[in-house]
């Protein structure tokens, strides 16, 4: 038993000392070992001999490369046919060398595997060195090929690889084009908002001028102390409705462009293909220029949000207060108008989400934005619709833009029913002859004059006849008459 232990210990010592002095495949040797065995000296001499042989082989390889380069320069001066034939023969010879080198690597690796079973340390070292030598030979062939710059002819596979490499850049360009279109639509929306703000400022100045002759600016704006609503105040509120309607329509149009809709076809489908189109008496939309599509979409939005305006609750409730106690009902409407006018809609709905204005906003949102439209605009999500149906009000930018329109219409409704008598609202029928006293064209014509025989293509927003006889003109889209 003691002999066996001594033999195994001796074997472990020999293996450890041999590994320390053996040259690794990466070209590093562990010379700093304190094993002074005779076998270690023999291995070191073998390693030094192998290194010298590799240096001689490297010198011979460099000599062959120089000869190869000189032959290549001589081939340039030769005839094209002879040069091509010589190059083909050299390539065939080179390919044979590559195959031979690969076969040699395979044989050396098989020898390395055989040296492991049964285990023979000397054979393992020799086989390992042989594998390294063959791999280096294969590496020299690779370098030789690269130096000679043998470029293979363009093939279909090369073309496919090139196409695959270019494809991501083409997709990026397409994506940038889509983003550019979306930004252009957003820029148009901002321009429209700026124009509306300027127009609203002019209207406000005009309203202040008229009101100063009567009750003063505070009374005209509906501040506390105003005895009753005025026609000038109603005109200003209608201007704000127009501005909010344009802004919300521009936002909706921007989302359609971002969702890559065919806007013209989508607007026609939305305005004429809705389930309640017959109930709303939706007008047929004529063929429009792309830049005029926004007017058809705004017409759809206004038709939905103004539906039921003649009723004191937009037909949301069965109240008859305006008939039972008309004076008290008018005072209450104007008081609600003054209280709500300075509040943000999100602030009010955050406190009283189920108040009459909250129910009005929810009903109009569900009427304007149907479920398929919302899923398409928001990538298959209808979370906003579920929240609205549950009695909540989302905090998204799109819904906030809608609430600005809903508040403007609600305030106009409160002000209308606070007046005695309430303003009568009207719309222009499709095909009706243009009348400048009751109608206003949404499009501009050269010289500012509407062409003769122009007729109404469709109404964009309703008009109102006020108690003092003044008229808030209906906005219409005009087309040439037949």
What is the radius of gyration computed over CA atoms, rounded to a whole number of angstroms? 44 Å
Strand content: 5-15%
The overall strand count is: 6
Major sheet description? 3 strands, antiparallel
* SSE run: HHHHHHHHHHHHHHHHHEEEEEE
Spans of at least 5 consecutive residues whose pLDDT stays below 50 are: 1-9, 15-44, 206-226, 274-280
- Mean pLDDT, to the nearest integer, reads 76
Q: Give the N-to-C terminal Cα separation.
A: 121 Å
**Structural class label:** mainly alpha
**Helicity level, as a percent range?**
55-70%
Task: Please list the strands of the largest sheet in the order they lie side by side.
Answer: 1-4-5
Global geometry: elongated
Total of DSSP H or I helical runs spanning 4+ residues: 17
What are the main properties of this structure?
mainly alpha; 482 residues; three-stranded antiparallel beta sheet; 5% strand
